Amino acid sequence: MLTINVDLTVPVMHFQLVVYTPALLSPALVASLTEVGNKLKTGEDPARPLKTALALLSDIDPGHVARVDGEIAAAADLHRQVHLSPLSRLFTRQPSGAAQLLRTPGLEYLFIFHRDGRLREAALLKVTGGLPNPFLFAAVLWRLNDWAEPVRQAATRCANRSFPITDPGIVAQTAAELLVRQASWRRWREERAIIDQVFGRSDVAAELAGLMSSATTGPQASTLRYALRTPALDRHLETLAFYATQPAVRAVALAALIDGKAEWPSGKAWRWIDKTYGLRRRETTFDHRPLARTVSRQNFIARGVADKSAVVRRVALTGIIRHMLDTTDARAWAASLLSDRSKSVRERAEFIVRHLPT
After folding, report:
1. Is 18 a domain residue?
2. How many angstroms separate the most distant Cα atoms in the chain?
3. What residues pair up with 270 in beta bridges, in sequence order?
């Protein structure tokens, strides 16, 4: 009897998803950083490529500081030095990183990204004066969240020295990028007070309000929410509510003015949907503080009802429902929006009309 053995085994194919993340450092910057690293290895003066590298670093979005941290260190080969024996030191030309840091002006800004925590600490202690650009300001902020406590302490001392005398435009540009992102940094203790203090400067608040008012792109509304942790922007809320380019910014500012309180995201919490089936979801929690109004709530609602954006008109009608549902003005405001082109606006207007006292 003829037996035929057929192998029906199907080879299993394994696929690995590779997500490509484009490099954030320009080729010119990588070349300059590499040249700096080579000169540091040979004990040569890195002043010329260092000057170029620091100028190119200023072009990086400060919001990307966490992503480029390792890239900068890799390009300049800023890694922990191998400890040499006394005999080996006699035959090597490479000076210690600490010695290079002391004798090379500007190297402290690059060593903020060094993989050796002791050199990051020394670099931060060397920084004096205001920070020269938003990216390096963000770099010091990032070190306030460093994994090494001595580095965080050095960053705190650096911030206390340099932040108060840094140009307000530089601080405002950094705030616009990092107010939202820094909420996810996990090692904050007293360092957060430093952030609130510098972003709460009146000159910085004026610059930041100008940026949020004129910006056509970017998460300006989220930035405004986080900025409301401190009262520095309170005096600018009316301008933002009436004249900001982005409707979302106008809506956030107007809601704060109508409600008489500033709200900002403070964390996450679980909310049960159905305990029987164990269904729950994570939701953002908010903290708040009261606002002092100089204009009546009616004025803010009237301006919001007439806004060209449905997002803002919706906020105004929500304000009526919360605070002025039993007033004579409510009928006129709602009636003017019963045929609004936005469905959500029409629904709120119809709700107000239905619930007005007869």
Report:
1. no
2. 102
3. 282
As a whole number of angstroms, the distance between CA 250 and CA 248 comes to 5
Paired with 264 in beta bridges are 287
Question: If you write DSSP's letter for every residue of 180-193 in order, what string do you get?
Answer: TGGGG-S--STHHH
Residue range 108-118: average pLDDT? 96
Contact 36, 110 (CB under 8 A): yes
Cα(266)–Cα(284) distance, integer angstroms: 7
Residue 59 one-letter amino acid: D
pLDDT range class, residue 63, cuts 50, 70, 90: confident
Residue 66 is encoded by which pair of tokens?
Answer: 């966490």
Torsion, Cα 104 195 183 116, to 10 degrees, reads 20
In a domain, 70, yes or no: yes
Residue 219 has pLDDT above 90, yes or no: no
Q: What Rg value do the Cα atoms of the chain yield, rounded?
A: 28
Residue 283 located in a structural domain = no
Domain count, the chain: 2
Assigned domain for 138 exists: yes
Reported as a single tens digit per residue, the pLDDT across 253-287 is 999 999 999 998 887 888 888 788 788 888 888 89
Closest CA to 127 of 158, 164, 100: 158
Write down which residue in 105, 131, 166 finishes a domain: 166
> Which range marks the domain in which residue 120 is found?
24-80+93-166
